[in-house]
Amino acid sequence: MTTILKNRLFWPALILAVMLGVNAFTSNQFIAIQDGHLFGTLIDILRGSAPLILVALGMTLVIATGGIDLSVGSVMAISGAVACLLISDLDNQNSLGGVLIAIGAAILVSLAAGLWNGTLVAVVGIQPIIATLILMVAGRGLAQLFTEGQIINVQSGPYSTLASGFFLALPVALLIAAAAVALTVLLTRRTALGLLLESVGGSPTASRLAGISARRITVMVYVVAGAFAGLAGLIASADIKSADSISAGNLIELDAILAVVIGGTALIGGRFSIAGTVLGAIIIQTLKVTVVAVDIPAEANLLFKSVVVVALCLSQSPDFRAKVFGRFTSRPAAEKVGIPA
Amino acid sequence: MTTMDMTPVTKDGGGPELNKRRRVYKPNTKYIPILATLFLLVVMYSTGVANYRNFDDPSVIVNLFRDNAVLLVVAVGMTFVILTGGIDLSVGAVISLTTILTATLLKADWPPLVVLPAVLLLGALIGAGQGAVIHFFKVEPFIATLAGLFLARGAALTINDESVPIRDDMWREISDFRIVLADGVVTKPIAIIAILSVLAAAAVLAWTRFGRNVYAIGGNADSALLMGLPVGRTRIAVYTLSGFCAALGGVLFSINSTSGWALQGNGMELDAIAACVIGGVLLTGGSGFVWGTLLGVLVTGLIRTIINFQGDLNAAWSRIIIGVLLFAFIVMQRLVTRKAK
Lengths: 341, 341
Fold this sequence. Notes:
Shape of chain B: globular
Largest sheet of chain B: 2 strands, antiparallel
Order of helices and strands of chain B: HHHHHHHEHEEHHHHEHHH
Shape of chain A: globular
Number of domains of chain B: 1
GO molecular function, one term (chain B): transmembrane transporter activity
Membrane topology (chain B): Multi-pass membrane protein
Oligomer: heterodimer
Pfam family, one (chain B): BPD_transp_2
Distance between the termini of chain B: 9 Å
Radius of gyration of chain A: 21 Å
Strand content of chain A: under 5%
CATH architecture of chain A: Orthogonal Bundle
Number of strands of chain A: 6
Largest sheet of chain A: 2 strands, antiparallel
Structural class of chain A: mainly alpha
GO cellular component, one term (chain B): plasma membrane
Distance between the termini of chain A: 35 Å
Strand order of the largest sheet of chain B: 1-4
CATH topology of chain A: ABC transporter involved in vitamin B12 uptake, BtuC
Region (Disordered) (chain B): 1-21
Helix content of chain A: 55-70%
Helix content of chain B: over 70%
CATH class of chain B: Mainly Alpha
CATH architecture of chain B: Orthogonal Bundle
Order of helices and strands of chain A: HHEEHHHHHEHEEHHHHEHHHH
Structural class of chain B: mainly alpha
């Protein structure tokens, strides 16, 4: 019992369970089968959290190396804009080949965006928060430039399948996110890659001296984060069947960082938990749905979010626990410089 | 990096030769970013004068202060936070909360002389709360102020999610008040308040014990603590100051537009951070000047002015150009600091 209570993910999981419980009571259809696929509030929550899971997944890897990626929202906007632009130029918007090319092009652009961030951080040696701030500011401008400031609408069956389609009774968006999570877990936990990431996050210099190509690893995580953000941008734009370069992925970087922190990954790097991040992303989405479900005005969502953030961060802060629960130890409280990673 | 770090080094480092070299070299590295920004500002202004009719009108410069008064005040507060090595993401949301609260209270017939100090105090309190969480519970500034962002924006949206007009006489009078500087050149009180806040901040940073503590903490918080400087008090004070400046910015916003809106100042925190970076304030803390921030605000403002004068340019370009400038300045700072080592 105590081992369960001491698990870092215990409190986040409990909060999620309580919120899901509230939803199960208030919604008239929590989970059901309709038209041959699963249906209901639970499925809506999971489907809606797919973009955030993807973005947060990339963010986890970046944060594991001691970095941060503020540009994910802008990359989402760029990717959606590129895809919708190419699809709207198609003669037949329903042609699978054309849509696949558009998706491929959008992912390529996202990879390039990630490469840019990675190069700035690892090769030029700029602090990650500033390096990615550049693309965060300029990227949305680029997306607006692509779409000429307009919202591009597309009427493409294959494209909207990304967000609203079902495969094997499950939403396609959720399957994409699940596949990305599975692939990342496989690559980081079944190979030495995860260890290398954590080692670079712990100390880039020590890793380099130990023979790890810290630079290559760092560039790689930003490229992966870019690709996942691009994928998330595609799902988000397929969901609304248009590219809105101003509001697409707006402030999602903050939600993603939040999801990572809720999941117990420290912003200083050197350690990460993919399961925690997925849990964090689902909590954020569930909170959004729950606030509406229990008839609290949607505007208050942010208030609740701030309460949850404060509660979770404080519960994870060792200093808070020590101060509040009165367990004063003789450990000297070394003053850590409060630089955001 | 700062005089704080340098003094002991030169004392212990011995020889007068080393001393002399350092003395010759130090001002250069310290002032290069700010001089580069000044140079850029002059180049941009001369390009504007050369290319557009009426650009040499003094009102172009005067209006720059009027249009960017809010950003200037907010960026001044942000400068203090960044100098200690922190970051404050909540300023945009505090602006929103201030404008909507001011408008709502005035609509409820509260006396304006009560509303004004009340909203300023609220901003300072939000800042102090964030500072306390950051200092006492070692929550990272990025996350703590993110929670503050959610809290303030959520509170603002809960109060009212629509624009509320201000019909109070005092607000209207200040809003309509014009200060004649010369023939045909007029400005508003909000520009004067913004300039006064820059002057006050520069004086505090240069000539007070608090100002030197801010630089010391940004240079190295551990050393500052060992030197016996009040690290906790100073750190909480800078966030309080930033919250106060944001609230003051919100009041200026409400005066300028004679209305309050919960989405007012959305994303202002990024503009403020960008202005600081362009002005040569290092995001790692310990180095930079309020004058640089002033120049940074003027540069971003001048970009918008030029785009307005050009007329046929998409507004998206201003984001892209600011992104490119950010990139140029960050790389330059990187080169300068590397050389200094």
